Amino acid sequence: MTDAVHHSTLNTLGRLHWYHWLVVGLSLVLTLSAWYITSKEVEQKARAQFEFQAEQIVAQVQERMAKYEEALWAGVAALHALPGEASRDDWRVFASSLKIETRFPGINGMGVIHYVPPEKRDAYLAWQRQLMPDYMMHPEHDQPEYWPITYIEPQASNRKAVGLDMAHECNRYTAAMKARDTGEANITGPITLVQDAQKTPGFLFYAPWYADDEMMPETYGDNDRRFLGLVYAPFIMYKLMDGTLANTNRQVNFSIRDGNEVLYNELNPDSENYDPDPLFRQEITLPLYGRPWQFTVHSSRIFRDQHTQSQPMMILIGGLLIDALLLALFIVMARANQRAVRYADEVTEDLRLRQSDLEMARHHLEARNAELEEANKELDQFAFVASHDLKAPLRGIIQLSGWIKDDIQDQLTPETAEYMRLLQSRTQRLEHLLDDLLSYSRAGRQDAQFETFNIRQRVEELFQLLSPPPGFQLICHDDIGDITTLATPFELIMRNLMGNAIKHHDQAEGMIWIHAWEAEDRYHFSVQDDGPGIPPEYHNKVFELFHTLRPRDEVEGTGLGLSIIKKVLERYECEFRLESDGGRGTCFTFTWPTALQLKQIQ
C-alpha cells in the first residue's frame, strides 16, 4: 500500500460516517419531539385551569347578582303583602328582617322608588311629609314624570339618596323605564351614587312593582299601566366585589367594563398578586340584566408559581446529554478503530524489518497480536458499556413518556395521541438500533466456539425464540442432519433471515421454508418466504446499512439485519444471493464452510 493510499485509509477510518450522523440526528429529533409534546401538554393543562378559574369568576358574579335579584323580588312581594300604602316604618321592619348587611354582603341598601305622574305630585308630597316634614324630590329636571326614592334602608348611611328623582339622569332613567316596560329586573349603566363620598363607579338594580287589584293609590302609580314603582338596591362596585370575590390567594385578577366605563379594575400593580406579564389572558362578555359587562381576566403570580413546571426542560436537557454521549461514543470508536489499524501497520512494518531474525519476529508478532486482541477486547467492552449507559437514560425517557401518557390520557387530542405513539415507537426503534449497531461492530470479530447440533432442531428452536404470530409456520427440509460448526455466527444468520420474513410479511398467515444440503465440499442453505417480494433494482441496496424498503414507522426493523448477515458471510468467505421478482416471495441462498475450512479461515 502506498503512503498516499495508506494516509487516505486512516483518514476514512478516523472520521464519522453518514450513518453515525443519522443515529445522532434521529436521537436529536426524538429529544426535541419529547420536549415539544410535553411542553404542549403542560401548556394545555395550565390553559384549561386558567379558563376554569376565569369562568368561575364570571359565574360567581352572576350567581351573586341572581341572589340580589331574589332579594328585590322579595321586596316586591312584601309590598303586595302589606295592607294599604306601605309606610316608611313598614319598609324598615321588612329590611331589618332581611338582614341585608349579613346575608347580602356588597349591597349598599334596599329601597322603594314610587312612580309619580304630574297629576299626583302634590298628593305624593303631602303623604310623605306627614312623617318626614322636610321631604323633597330633587334635583329639578324637565321630564314629564317623577321617580323619587321614597324609602331606603339602612337610611342613616343612605340619607342623601332619599327623595332623589331617577328622571334627572340618563342611565338611572333609561334603566327604570326599561324595567317598567319589560316587567323584568334591570341594572343601570355606570353611575356615581350620591351617598358615595369617594365618588367611585356604581350602579342601581331595579325590580318593577305592579298593582295586583283594581284599586290604585291616589298618591302614586300609573293608572293606565297599573305600574306602581320599583324596588331597588344601590351598589358601589368595589364593595360588591369585596363582598363577592375577595382578592386573597386568587389565581386570577380581572377588570369589569360597561361599554367604555371601567366599573372595577384589579389589573394594576397595586392589586394583590398582580402579574405584569401574565401567562394567559381572556375576554368574557356577560349579558347581565340588560347591560353587557366585559370581563378582562389575567393570570396572577400565584397561578404562575403553581403552573411553572420543569418537566419539559428536564426532558430536553436529558435528551441532549444522551445525544452528546452518543456522539462521543462514535468519535471514540472511530478513533479507536484508527489506532487499531495503525497498530496493525506497525506490526506489519516490524515484521518486514525483522525478516532476518524469524524467531525473534515470530515472538514479537505473537506479543503484538496478543496486545491487539486485548485492545479489541477493551474496544468491545467499551462499546458494550457505552451502549448500556446510553440505553439506561433512553429507557428512562420511555418510562417517562408512558407516565406522561397515563397522566394526560383523558385530555389527549387525536393529534397529541399520535405524537405520543410516534414518540414511544421511535424511542423503542432507537433502542433496537443501538443493539444492532453493537452487533454489527462485533460481527466477525468475536471468538466463536465449535458446537455439534442437529440443523432441523436448532432452526425450529430459533424460530420459536422469535415468537412468531400464530398464523406463521416453518417447514425445514434437512438433508445434512448433525453438523459441527461455529454456532454463534450461524445462528445469527438464521435468526435474522427468519426474523425479516416475519417482520416484513404483510399478511396474518405465512410460511417459511428452509432447505439444507451438502454439495461440492460445502454446506448449502436456502431460506424462502411467501411475503412481499423485493424488486430486482433493490437486491443490492437491501444489504446497505439502515436501508429498508418500507417507511420506518411501518416496520420494526432498523435496517441492519441483512448488513450483519453480509458481514458475517464475507468474514467466512461464503457465497450468497438473493432471488425475488418483486411480486410474492423471497429466497436467500448461501454457502457455509465445513469445520475444517472454518479452522483454516480462523
Automatic annotation (TrEMBL):
GO molecular function, one term: phosphorelay sensor kinase activity
Keywords in alphabetical order: Coiled coil, Kinase, Membrane, Phosphoprotein, Transferase, Transmembrane, Transmembrane helix
Domain Histidine kinase: 385-596
Record-linked CDD domains: HATPase, HisKA
Coiled-coil spans in chain: 355-382
Protease among keywords: no
Domain CHASE span(s) in chain numbering: 82-235
Signal peptide coordinates: none
Subcellular localization, as worded in the UniProt entry: Membrane
Enzyme class: transferase
InterPro entries per the UniProt record, alphabetical: BphY/WalK/GraS-like, CHASE_dom, CHASE_sf, HATPase_C_sf, HATPase_dom, His_kinase_dom, HisK_dim/P_dom, HisK_dim/P_sf
GO terms under cellular component: membrane
UniProt protein name: histidine kinase
Organism of this sequence: Terasakiispira papahanaumokuakeensis
